[in-house]
């Protein structure tokens, strides 16, 4: 499966965020990811969305932005993401 960007859906297993009733499954992190950091990042993003009243993208969003394809790209994206730097702490992001 190739998850390209921010999209989610009800009962659609091909999307990175799968929702069914009270079940929410985040399919982006790998098995090697630290589950505590995944949860912290997911909660930080969710709180930012609530605070700023950000509408979720359409469930069939064909124009979603690409996710980083390498560790280097992901680290650069993390360093420039003001929400994660603020919520997770600059010390953590620079570590």
Roughly how many Å apart are the termini? Answer: 31 Å
Structural class: alpha+beta
Mean pLDDT: 78
Number of domains: 1
Helix content: 40-55%
Largest sheet: 3 strands, mixed
Total E-strand runs: 3
Low-pLDDT sequence parts? 1-5
| SSE order | EEEHHHH
Radius of gyration from the CA trace? Answer: 14 Å
Percentage of residues in DSSP E strands: 5-15%
What can you see in these coordinates?
By secondary structure, this protein is α+β, with helices and mostly antiparallel strands. It has helices spanning 35-51, 71-80, 82-88, 90-94, and strands at 8-10, 17-20, 23-26. Helix 1 packs across helix 3. The termini are far apart.
Summary tags:
single chain, 95 residues, alpha+beta
Concise account of the structure shown:
With 95 residues, the protein is of the alpha+beta class. It has one domain (8-94).
Question: What's the arrangement of secondary structure elements?
Answer:
Elements: E1 8-10, E2 17-20, E3 23-26, H1 35-51, H2 71-80, H3 82-88, H4 90-94
Parallel strand pairs: 1-2
Antiparallel strand pairs: 2-3
Helix pairs in contact: 1-3
């Amino acid at each position: 499966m190739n998850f390209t960007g921010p999209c989610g859906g009800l009962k659609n297993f091909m999307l990175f965020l799968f929702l069914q009733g009270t079940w929410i499954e985040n399919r982006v992190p790998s098995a090697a990811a630290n589950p505590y950091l995944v949860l912290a990042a997911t909660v930080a993003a969710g709180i930012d969305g609530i605070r700023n009243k950000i509408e979720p993208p359409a469930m069939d969003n064909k124009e979603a932005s690409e996710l980083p394809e390498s560790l280097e790209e992901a680290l650069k994206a993390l360093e420039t993401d003001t929400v994660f730097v603020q919520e997770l702490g600059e010390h953590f992001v620079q570590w």
